[in-house]
């Protein structure tokens, strides 16, 4: 793959790139997650806002997800933030990626962050999760898939409506900043029950998903990884262990190229018969 910015990974194209025209399937992605090469999936979406440094939260969370072998899909401003730092640049974006995810990216020929579309294309991500469930091996519904949605720098009511739709579909969604419902506690005491019970507990009992507001990026990262690992355990999948995956890329050829010519020939073709 050339080191050009790559965007436009619809659910149809993800299906195609994993198997081609006649063998398109989400099986390779599911297998990679089940084996632990890919720890899970994080959808990091949403706008920017003046309450935080521009792009900081998007990039901070995305960078750590990639190090932890979490495949990242993005839309809208979140994807643009990743484009600015090179995560949509094919093999050029793999410098900070964990060993398991890097192997998958190199094998399939994709960047470590998949730009899925504009800010109103988040339904594509739910479609991908639905097709992963249909493929088998990752539970019976979206709420069982090791996946998390994050909107670190959201700024509009539209983002909240999208988040609640995703929660109703079974997703765990983390929003940056403070919970606007909690800001109404002084005027509407019942809003505390909404913020602390309905969004976090009752919705999860009803739909499998929940909505949480977190300020600190490190806490976002920790809770995302904890949720992914818990879903892996619930499915009976092996615990994530980056040490299971060795060197990736052309490391064998790179080692051979450091050898003297005769040693390189022997390593490639063996010692001729009759020679000691």
Describe the structure.
This protein is an alpha/beta fold and 276 residues long. It has two domains: 11-245, Rossmann fold; 251-276, no CATH class. Helix content is 46%, strand content 11%. A six-stranded parallel β-sheet has the order 3-2-1-4-5-6, with helices on both faces. Helix 4 (56-67) links the parallel strand 1 and strand 2. The N and C termini lie far apart (43 Å). The relative contact order is 0.15. The model has no long low-confidence stretch (mean pLDDT 87).
What's the gist of this structure?
The chain has 276 residues and is α/β, with parallel strands linked by helices.
Biggest sheet, open or closed, and with what strands and sense?
6 strands, parallel
Widest sheet: strand order? 3-2-1-4-5-6
Along the chain, the helix and strand elements come as: HHHEHEHHEHEHEHEHHH
Query: What's the β-strand tally?
Result: 6
- Overall pLDDT metric: 87
Per CATH, what is the topology of the largest domain?
A: Rossmann fold
CA-based shape? elongated
Which terms summarize this structure?
276 residues; alpha/beta; Rossmann fold; 2 domains; 11% strand; elongated
Question: What is the fold's blueprint, element by element?
Answer:
Elements: H1 11-17, H2 20-23, H3 27-35, E1 40-44, H4 56-67, E2 70-75, H5 76-84, H6 99-108, E3 113-117, H7 123-135, E4 147-151, H8 157-168, E5 172-176, H9 190-207, E6 210-214, H10 217-234, H11 251-257, H12 261-269
Parallel strand pairs: 1-2, 1-4, 2-3, 4-5, 5-6
Helix pairs in contact: 4-10
């Amino acid at each position: 793959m050339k080191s050009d910015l790559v965007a436009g990974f619809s659910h149809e194209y993800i299906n195609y790139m994993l198997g081609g025209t006649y063998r398109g399937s989400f099986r390779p992605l599911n297998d990679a997650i089940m084996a632990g090469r890919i720890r899970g999936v994080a959808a990091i979406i949403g706008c920017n806002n003046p309450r935080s440094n521009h792009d900081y939260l998007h990039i901070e969370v995305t960078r750590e997800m990639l190090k932890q072998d979490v495949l990242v899909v993005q839309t809208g401003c979140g994807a643009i933030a990743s484009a600015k730092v090179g995560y949509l640049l094919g093999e050029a974006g793999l410098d900070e990626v964990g060993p398991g995810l890097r192997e998958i990216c190199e094998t399939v020929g994709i960047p470590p962050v998949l730009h899925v579309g504009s800010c109103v294309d988040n339904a594509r991500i739910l479609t991908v999760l639905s097709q992963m469930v249909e493929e088998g091996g990752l539970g019976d519904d979206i709420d069982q898939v090791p996946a998390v949605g994050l909107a670190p720098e959201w700024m509009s009511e539209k983002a909240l409506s999208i988040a609640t739709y995703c929660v109703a579909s079974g997703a765990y969604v983390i929003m940056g900043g403070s919970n606007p419902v909690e800001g109404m506690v002084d005027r509407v005491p019942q809003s505390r029950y909404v913020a602390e019970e309905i969004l976090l507990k009752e919705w999860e009992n009803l739909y499998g998903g929940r909505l949480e507001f977190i300020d600190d990026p490190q806490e976002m990262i920790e809770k995302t990884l904890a949720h992914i690992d818990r879903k892996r355990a619930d499915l009976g999948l092996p615990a994530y262990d980056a040490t299971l995956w060795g060197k990736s890329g052309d490391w064998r050829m790179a080692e051979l190229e450091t050898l003297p010519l005769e040693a390189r020939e022997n390593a490639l073709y063996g010692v001729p018969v009759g020679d000691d």
